Amino acid sequence: MAGAGFAALGLAWLITTGLAVREVLAGRIASHRRWMIRSYALTLSAVTLRIYLPLSDVFNVEFLTAYRIIAWACWLPNLLLAELYLWRRPTSVPSLTP
């Protein structure tokens, strides 16, 4: 279960970062910024994981159980918050294409 969570995180990170690179190379800066916000949210999952692990000790959750949950919980909420942020943010940044 934990392995699937981290594999999904890795795949999501590669996809979002790859799409961000594609967009900047095409001169679509607004789209690039949006994809980079998603990528950054996924990158921050390493920080989120390190916050959640000690909290599992505080709440006396067995390590293996906590780790299985945290493997998903360290990145899904981050991505959801990024999407909520992007949903509220205007996309009126000019493109670099001629």
Q: Could you walk me through the main structural features you see in this protein, from its secondary elements to its overall organization?
A:
The chain is mainly alpha-helical and about 100 residues long. The protein has 5 helices and no strands. The protein has helices at about 1-25, 30-45, 45-60, 65-75, 75-90. The longest helix is centred in the first third of the chain and has 24 residues, at about 1-25. The model has no long low-confidence stretch (mean pLDDT about 90).
What is this entry, summarized?
With 98 residues, the chain is an all-alpha fold. It contains five helices and no strands.
Break the fold down into its secondary structure elements and pairings:
Layout: H1 2-25, H2 29-43, H3 45-58, H4 63-73, H5 76-88
List keywords for this structure.
98 residues; single chain; 5 helices; mainly alpha; elongated
**Low-confidence runs (pLDDT<50, min 5 residues)?**
none
Compute the gyration radius: what is it? Answer: 16 Å
Q: What's the order of the H and E elements?
A: HHHHH
Structural class: mainly alpha
- For the termini, the CA-CA separation is 48 Å
What would you call the shape? elongated
Tally of DSSP helical segments:
5
Largest sheet: none
Beta-strand share of residues: under 5%
What's the total count of β strands?
0
| Helicity range | over 70%
Mean pLDDT: 90
